[in-house]
Amino acid sequence: MSPGFRGRPRSAGPDLPPGQYLTPDFPVLSAGPTPRVELANWEFVLATEGGAEFRWTWDELMGLPQETPTVDIHCVTRWSKLGTTWQGVSLDTLLSGVDTAARYALVHSYGGYTTNLPLDDLRGGRAWVVHRYADAPLPAEHGGPARLLVPHLYLWKSAKWVRGIRLLVEDQPGFWETAGYHDYGDPWREQRYQGD
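^ Sulfoxide reductase catalytic subunit YedY, sequence as received from the core. Prediction below:
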């Protein structure tokens, strides 16, 4: 290093993805009405590309090993919330023993919402089906009774009111992706819209 070279001074604030601002709140953004799903009727279905289905009722999901991730979340509308704590089941647990050659996943929600992800982004301790937030049951407006949580991508990929995942050999865009949002949605690369 050359004498006197110090580079840019570091910000005293938190490290946020480009274009994001910090919020202490948890804004509620939805494209339509909030589905109300009774726990007795809730079901999660994982379907392979070959048609095999794996199903969990609410009680069965609660009986699986639970994890409590604390993660930062980033919304495409530019807000970020740091240190959020959730409870749920890792997708690694749900995918364990599932025989698949799929490379993609299409997530389905109660209410009709869908979003697409590479299957690798649901593995390796990076995604959960969560049912608690801040040590309380997940409120309906934030996706309760359960939502997908994929915190390394923009929050629209963390589908609210999740009811299932279909594994796919070829990528298939979901609701926001067909409306022009980015297929992947990495906040650190500002992948907000197609072409970013």
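The CA atoms of residues 111 and 194 lie 25 Å apart.
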